[in-house]
Design a protein that fits this description.
By secondary structure, this protein is an alpha+beta fold. 41% of the residues lie in helices and 22% in strands. 0% of the residues are buried.
């Protein structure tokens, strides 16, 4: 992990070899740090805790779909059997 100190109104740039850069800018520093993120279309920007929940939900949905498909196939084999 890269740790960089930035002051208010300063930013960092994340450059990709295949696309446009992403800019992360410090908007304000009070009792919280406020940042702004500028990224090209196609990037999804998540808070970490929300992203973890989304990933868990995606995994659960995938497992559920696979399980349901297996049950469907097993039951149709019994019916056609």
């Amino acid at each position: 992990m890269l740790v960089i100190s930035r002051k208010e109104d300063e930013s960092i740039i994340i450059e990709s070899e295949q696309g446009e850069p992403i800019e992360i800018k410090v908007i304000s520093v009070d009792n919280q740090v406020r940042i702004g993120i500028s990224a090209p279309n196609g990037y999804k920007i998540w808070r970490n805790e929300l992203f973890k929940t989304v990933e868990l939900n995606r995994s659960a949905a995938e497992l559920s779909s696979v399980s349901n498909l297996r049950n469907f196939v097993a039951n149709s084999d019994k019916v056609n059997g």
